Amino acid sequence: MSLKTIPVNEDNHDELYTFDAPKTAEKSHLTLIPYYAWANRDEKQMNVWIQQARI
Protein backbone atom coordinates (compact mmCIF):
# COMPACT_ATOMS: atom_id res chain seq x y z
CA MET A 1 0.00 0.00 0.00
CA SER A 2 1.22 3.50 -0.66
CA LEU A 3 -0.26 6.87 0.20
CA LYS A 4 0.61 10.29 -1.04
CA THR A 5 2.74 12.20 1.43
CA ILE A 6 2.18 15.79 2.45
CA PRO A 7 5.27 18.00 2.71
CA VAL A 8 6.04 19.49 6.11
CA ASN A 9 5.33 23.18 6.47
CA GLU A 10 8.44 24.50 8.20
CA ASP A 11 6.61 27.69 9.29
CA ASN A 12 4.42 25.68 11.69
CA HIS A 13 7.13 23.51 13.25
CA ASP A 14 6.05 24.40 16.83
CA GLU A 15 2.35 23.65 16.27
CA LEU A 16 0.84 20.21 16.75
CA TYR A 17 -2.02 20.85 14.33
CA THR A 18 -2.43 23.14 11.34
CA PHE A 19 -5.47 24.28 9.41
CA ASP A 20 -3.64 24.25 6.07
CA ALA A 21 -5.52 21.85 3.82
CA PRO A 22 -3.61 19.69 1.35
CA LYS A 23 -3.84 21.08 -2.17
CA THR A 24 -4.66 17.73 -3.81
CA ALA A 25 -6.22 14.42 -2.89
CA GLU A 26 -6.34 11.06 -4.57
CA LYS A 27 -8.26 7.85 -4.03
CA SER A 28 -6.41 5.09 -2.22
CA HIS A 29 -7.16 1.95 -0.25
CA LEU A 30 -6.23 1.73 3.40
CA THR A 31 -6.11 -1.41 5.50
CA LEU A 32 -6.51 -0.70 9.20
CA ILE A 33 -5.11 -3.14 11.74
CA PRO A 34 -6.41 -2.68 15.29
CA TYR A 35 -3.68 -1.81 17.76
CA TYR A 36 -4.43 -4.84 19.93
CA ALA A 37 -3.71 -7.15 16.99
CA TRP A 38 -0.68 -5.24 15.82
CA ALA A 39 0.87 -5.09 19.29
CA ASN A 40 -0.28 -8.58 20.31
CA ARG A 41 -2.30 -7.28 23.25
CA ASP A 42 -5.76 -8.02 24.61
CA GLU A 43 -8.71 -6.84 22.54
CA LYS A 44 -9.88 -3.38 23.65
CA GLN A 45 -11.93 -0.59 22.17
CA MET A 46 -10.07 2.07 20.21
CA ASN A 47 -11.17 5.24 18.41
CA VAL A 48 -9.54 6.27 15.15
CA TRP A 49 -10.11 9.52 13.27
CA ILE A 50 -9.34 9.69 9.57
CA GLN A 51 -9.97 12.85 7.61
CA GLN A 52 -12.07 12.23 4.52
CA ALA A 53 -11.70 14.22 1.33
CA ARG A 54 -14.37 14.21 -1.35
CA ILE A 55 -12.78 13.29 -4.67
From TrEMBL:
Residues 11-51 form the Non-reducing end beta-L-arabinofuranosidase-like GH127 C-terminal domain. InterPro entries: Beta-AFase-like_GH127_C. This is Non-reducing end beta-L-arabinofuranosidase-like GH127 C-terminal domain-containing protein. The lineage of its organism: Bacteria, Bacillati, Bacillota, Bacilli, Lactobacillales.
